[in-house]
Write a sequence for this structure.
């Protein structure tokens, strides 16, 4: 009789224990699912554009940015990155060491020698000034896959001022940036290089998105001709839709359509001053 009672008690204890474990597993699985969903949402790459028509490219993930590199023209199609207050901490100094990208085979890796005597600056797309937070980010900002032939006055003047504006905007909340060359069907400046045929861009674009954290998203576009000038921001400003029509790129495609369509159709320069 005692054995029978003991067996019942033991079976009941096992049942309760198994039931408790199952309930615990369900709760844990539910929490894991929730965390996974949040993680996926946090990892959305708002800055990465999407091609509307296919182009020659090798996609390279660098420490501080992503680049779509055109192996035929030997310049980036576009470069994109997120800039935030954490990345504005200045731990590294500008090193000025322009290097071939080690991720490319030697026959595709442009060196800095290709620019010597060309009359064009080695113009950063993702600027060194955005990459002072880490030595590797700084080093990789000088990879030649992040570089375009750029008018020296533009590179050190109005283009640089826009880069400084982006850093100022990033002190308030994250900004998502994509930029790159604009190429006319009939090249105005042709090519430079010795071993490589490097296309000289006719102009440059930059698009910027911010306001997601504050719930007030806004976006703006800029187009700069590859020439000298000292102009106010008004001369270069465009809607993101305008830049998309010229570049065949779809920017900020990870935004909900209703938000993307609204903020890309127009801009208010006063919101960015």
């Amino acid at each position: 009789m005692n054995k029978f009672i003991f067996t019942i008690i033991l079976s009941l204890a096992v049942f309760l224990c198994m039931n408790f474990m199952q309930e615990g597993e369900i709760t844990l699985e539910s929490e894991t699912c929730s965390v996974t969903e949040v993680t996926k949402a946090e990892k959305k790459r708002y800055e990465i554009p999407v091609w509307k028509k296919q182009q020659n490219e090798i996609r390279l993930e660098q420490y501080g940015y992503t680049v779509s590199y055109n192996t035929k023209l030997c310049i980036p199609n576009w470069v994109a990155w997120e800039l935030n207050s954490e990345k504005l901490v200045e731990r590294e100094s500008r090193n000025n060491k322009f290097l071939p990208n080690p991720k490319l085979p030697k026959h595709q890796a442009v060196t800095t020698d290709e620019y010597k005597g060309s009359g064009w600056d080695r113009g950063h797309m993702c600027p060194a000034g955005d990459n002072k937070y880490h030595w590797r980010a700084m080093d990789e900002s000088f990879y030649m896959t992040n570089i375009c032939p750029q008018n020296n006055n533009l590179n050190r003047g109005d283009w640089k001022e826009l880069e400084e504006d982006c850093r100022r905007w990033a002190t308030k909340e994250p900004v998502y940036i994509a930029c790159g060359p604009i190429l006319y069907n009939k090249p105005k400046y042709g090519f430079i290089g010795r071993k490589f045929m490097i296309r000289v861009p006719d102009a440059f674009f930059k698009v910027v998105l911010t306001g997601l954290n504050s719930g007030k998203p806004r976006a703006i576009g800029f187009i700069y001709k590859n020439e000298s000038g000292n102009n106010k921001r008004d001369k270069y400003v465009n809607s993101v839709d305008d830049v998309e029509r010229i570049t065949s790129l779809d920017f900020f495609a990870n935004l909900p359509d209703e938000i993307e369509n609204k903020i890309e159709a127009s801009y208010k320069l006063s919101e960015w001053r």
Notes: The two ends are 88 Å apart (CA to CA). The mean pLDDT is 88. The longest helix spans residues 2-42. Residues 1-43 form one domain.
